[in-house]
Design a protein that fits this description.
five-stranded antiparallel beta sheet; elongated; 19% strand
Amino acid sequence: MHDTADDLAHLHASIDDLLSAGAAGPDGHDPFDIVARILDVLVDVLRLDFACARLCQITDTPLDLIRVPKHLGSERARQVGRVFSHWLAVRPARWPLTDRDQPGDGESRIAQLPLGLQNEIGVLVAAASRADFPTRIETIVLRFAVKEAVVRVLESWHSKSQKQQNGSERALNREVTERWHVEKRLREANQATRLILDSISDTFFAFDKEWRYTYLNRQAAEQLSVLGKDPASLIGKKLWDEFPFMPGEEGLRRAMQERVIVTQEYFLGQLGEWVENRIFPSSENGLVVFQRYISERKLAEEALRKAQAELGHVTRLSTMGEMAAWIAHEVNQPLAAVVTNAEACLRWVRAEPLEAYEVRAAVERIVRDANRASAIISRIRAFLARSEAHEVPVDVEHVVQEVASLVQAEARAKGVSLHLDMVGKLPLVLADPVQLQQVILNLVMNAMDAMRSVRDSLRVLVLGAESYGMDAVLIRVRDSGIGIDPGHRDRVFNAFYTTKRDGMGMGLAISRSIVEAHGGRIWVTPNADDGETFQFTLPIRQKGD
């Protein structure tokens, strides 16, 4: 909606004044008197510097009418008249719609409109020093004034002479009909705008540059009634006077000051609803706001997030199930070492003389191996824990090394040579460490499976990380396996797609959702020789960004 309610009210009032001015005055239907009254109305309602008209067919010599604001006096009118006469003399017969001139001390913006279809009656000129003159509303008023003048002058000629030619009668009919259609279209446009805005499901508000309400649709009026406001009385009142602690104030003020489109979401406590505001700059430096209730969408997003967390937990359990044999082996090694060192310690304690040095060394080895077993169990428990996503500053290099420690025994059992390739000092990223570990572990396990049919000596897996541009960290898993069928490459991250006989097809899909939820991107590229490289990025950011 481009025009405010005040503009439309001003337009209607101006049209009413022009209709009154065009009616018969004390001198009856005298054309000169009719045009003079119309010029007086234009000067008043449009705040013009001056308004002039040249009538060509009233007498043998063209007559000029000059009107200026009453407080400027007759001297100003004479000055304008001299400039006006000279200005028309040097202009071609076919006047332009708008021009610029200096009829007084300052510069004025000129609007010219012909009186009659071919300027046969004359010309009307209006001037104002405002840079935006004429505005859309002012143009409508000026065109209506010209049509009113033409209609009234033609009516006057018709009343004075019954010898009016058929062509003039047709012109009169066209002008009268066009005036009626203009008024009808204006009414219909206003009605259509209101109908459209009332039919949408969004609440709609319009404000001028001073934050005054200029329009509310039906949904907005209902919302304000619930909030204890009288919608009818709000038009013309300032938003911040009615709602001094409005949620989303920052977005509203940014859109108003910077003249940019702003979309924001917030919880409207008074209604118990989540809302989404789409804020657009409007004409004359105001704003319009489309507001939509999104509580159902928020609940759906929360349910989806919980479902993804549950599915991720199931995937971690599945991964640990696949690794159960080497987990038992990993834990068994330090426990067996503890038993061996304890038995040795008992022998040295019974020895004569007491072997204190060997006893102390055995006890130290027992403590070391017990701690190693405890660390293995702790890593597994942390990985399998069912917990909500919790983003904290994370050292990527530490997470990569943890995963490498976790899969080292599995890699040895499968004849895979595991190498770390950390490039430079890496900045911290804001991430959930368990989810990040899950993504890397899933890529590593897939890489080892991809090399199952390759000879032992060629099974090489490289796990690395490096800076990626100025604002991200790249983690990559490179294998020397059989590679991916090019025809299926674009499907590997789809849910339920798998090349394993007993696979679920969810590992890479979950990995992608985790990476994208962290603001990163994951993809796969073929190596120059054999195998594939899966890699993903995580943006560098501080908590609170």
